[in-house]
């Protein structure tokens, strides 16, 4: 068997899993199971949120290691489910390594992905229906819808303008959200600036990072858990700073 | 009757639709969308019934934890997606915002109160979902055997 190729496939799978939002233990477990299914005795896998290291020893005793750094993180549940399904299938059927590689490379293309306007719609719907939960009426919901669409637009299309630093991006979006809520309420759409801003800010809130952080810590991956927890606290701070800036700018007019 | 409608049913429907919105953002397809939406509505219902306190957030996230673990077992899918989306309505976005506005206004006492309350909510959410997930994982083999 070509162990170099097997190693490449497994690292690639780990990388896909991680960048679509899997927990550390899932990445490590999936890669380890895959390698064990192909007959390796004790593969070693180490993963932290932006790096996967896989080390195996061939039956002849020759050690090979590969490291893969993961640049961007997102949450793509469909891709995660597909990767998970592929991993299970490979473990059960033990397809030839070349075929496994082809399947893995084809995975991203075959995974359904919502078009940008649908995602934008999602960014709009969520705040609009959050506002009744925070005591808003129909007008507040409309204002939140507009705010959410604006934030979604910034996140989806404003990448080049506001950079890729996630804290800076969050702060800018949060400033846009609070400034827009202030303006909309001044113009007469919506009753309360607070309700509208909070509803819009819910799309930026670090719920994903917080949930993942706790899952990592419960699974025993303390380093990854702490780094994700720090991520969620910094994101919350960025939201607060951005909202303060937005309100301050709005206060000038 | 109308009180039940406006106080419980309508918020849960809103939570359901808001979660559907998030499934578009996180690229969840098919039945998964409905599962996430129902999870969000369930979480919010428990939160309202238990009195909208930190303890209520804990109970709500515990309910969501059990629900999403069950759904993940049924569909043989990673639990992450369902859990993430269903917990989102409970994340204390309001706390962050009010803490910020008190801080800017220089009202230190209320700033600290709100900040601690926000941390409490976040911790309750995280611990609630994770504890039930761990318990569920420990108890699942026995539940399965007794069927």
Question: What would you note in describing this structure?
Answer:
The complex is a heterodimer of chains A (253) and B (147). Chain A has two domains: 3-110, no CATH class; 116-252, no CATH class. Chain A has eleven helices and three strands, in the order ααβββααααααααα. Chain A has helices at 3-19, 24-37, 77-93, 97-110, 116-130, 138-157, 159-162, 166-186, 193-201, 207-219, 222-252, and strands at residues 44-48, 51-57, 63-69. The longest helix of chain A is centred in the last third of the chain and has 31 residues, at 222-252. The model of chain A has no long low-confidence stretch (mean pLDDT 89). Chain B has 147 residues and is an all-alpha fold. Chain B has one domain (2-90, 125-146). In chain B, 85% of the residues lie in helices and 0% in strands. In chain B, helix 1 (2-25) packs across helix 2, helix 2 runs antiparallel to helix 3 (54-75) and helix 2 (31-49) packs across helix 4.
């Amino acid at each position: 068997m070509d162990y170099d190729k097997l190693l490449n496939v497994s690292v690639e799978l780990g990388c896909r899993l991680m960048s679509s939002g899997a927990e550390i233990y899932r990445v490590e477990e999936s890669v380890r199971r895959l390698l064990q299914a192909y007959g390796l005795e004790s593969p070693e896998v180490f993963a932290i949120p932006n790096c996967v290291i896989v080390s195996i020893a061939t039956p002849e005793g020759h050690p090979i290691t590969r490291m893969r750094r993961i640049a961007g993180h997102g949450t793509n549940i469909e891709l995660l489910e597909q990767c998970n399904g592929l991993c299970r299938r490979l473990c059960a059927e033990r397809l030839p390594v070349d075929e496994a590689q082809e399947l893995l490379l084809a995975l991203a293309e075959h995974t359904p992905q919502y078009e940008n306007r649908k995602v934008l719609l999602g960014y709009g719907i969520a705040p609009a229906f959050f506002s009744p939960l925070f005591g808003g009426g129909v007008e507040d919901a409309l204002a939140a819808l507009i705010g959410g669409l604006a934030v979604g637009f910034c996140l989806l299309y404003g990448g080049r303008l506001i950079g890729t630093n996630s804290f800076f991006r969050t702060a800018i979006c949060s400033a846009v959200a609070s400034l827009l809520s202030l303006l909309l309420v001044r113009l007469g759409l919506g009753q309360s600036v607070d309700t509208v801003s909070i509803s819009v800010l819910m799309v930026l809130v670090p719920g994903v990072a917080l949930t993942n952080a706790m899952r990592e810590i419960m699974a025993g991956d303390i380093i990854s858990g702490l780094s994700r927890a720090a991520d969620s606290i910094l994101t919350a701070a960025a939201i607060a700073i951005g909202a303060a800036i937005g309100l301050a700018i709005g206060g000038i007019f | 009757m109308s009180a039940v409608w406006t106080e419980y049913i309508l918020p849960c429907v809103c939570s359901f639709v808001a979660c559907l919105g998030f499934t578009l953002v996180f690229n969840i397809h098919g039945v998964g969308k409905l599962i996430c939406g129902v999870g969000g509505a369930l979480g919010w219902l428990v939160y309202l019934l238990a009195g909208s306190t930190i303890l209520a957030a804990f109970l709500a996230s515990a309910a969501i934890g059990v629900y999403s673990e069950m759904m993940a077992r049924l569909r043989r899918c990673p639990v992450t997606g369902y859990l993430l989306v269903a917990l989102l309505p409970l994340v204390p976005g309001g706390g962050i915002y009010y803490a910020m506005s008190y801080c800017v206004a220089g009202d230190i006492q209320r700033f600290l109160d709100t900040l601690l309350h926000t941390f409490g909510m976040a911790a309750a959410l995280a611990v609630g979902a994770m504890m039930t997930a761990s318990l569920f994982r420990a108890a699942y083999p026995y539940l399965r055997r007794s069927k």
